[in-house]
Amino acid sequence: MSGRVEGKRVLITGAARGMGRSHAVRLAQEGADVILVDICESLPEIEYPLATADELKETAELVEKAGRRAVTHVVDVRDERALTAAVDDGVGQLGGLDAAVANAGVLTGGTWETTTSQQWRTVVDVNLIGTWNTCRAAIPHLVDRGGSLVNISSAAGIKGSPLHTPYTASKAGVVGLSRALANELAAMSIRVNTVHPTGVPTGMQPASLHQLLHDTRSDLGPVFQNALPIVMAEAVDISNAVLFLISDEARYVTGLEFKVDAGVTIR
Ligand SMILES: NC(=O)c1ccc[n+]([C@@H]2O[C@H](COP(=O)([O-])OP(=O)(O)OC[C@H]3O[C@@H](n4cnc5c(N)ncnc54)[C@H](O)[C@@H]3O)[C@@H](O)[C@H]2O)c1
Question: Which residue numbers delimit the Ketoreductase domain (predicted)?
Answer without folding.
Answer: 8-196
